[in-house]
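Appendix B, Record 12. Input sequence as logged:
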Amino acid sequence: MVKRTSFESNDCPVARSLEAIGDWWSLLIVRDAFLGARRFGDFQKGLGVAKNILAARLRALVAHGVLEMRPAEGARQDYILTEKGRALFTVIVALRQWGEEHCFGADNCQIELLDREQGRPVARLEMRAEDGRRLEPADTVVKRRGGEPLLRGEGGRATTG
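Logged structural output:
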């Protein structure tokens, strides 16, 4: 088996994030936790994942502080999103909205995210500057604190990494 590269001490916040939640099973487990899954069997039924893979992903999410185990009835354990896990809501919504736009034809997605209070679709996520301006990738730069941009993209402009 090929040993996986660890990004645990990498300088890049994207790489470190992927260390904790970067495989599809982990993100789908987090998604299902937002939908109300709590028990091992709930996740397995909803995802159709092999028990050994699910057990490994749940252990990793607990180890990274995304989920916590709480005693439930009998000898069972519930997996509950921590504050760190709940902070992934925007990430899940961003992936969902990207998928709606790029993985489905016009209006072919049969599942929608609604504002519970209003019953209306959730607005598209947008990147905003501190002053409220809408930002596109070309409007941003990634730099080490006090240093030079990390990457040069199209037209010589620094790009995100």
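The mean pLDDT is 88.
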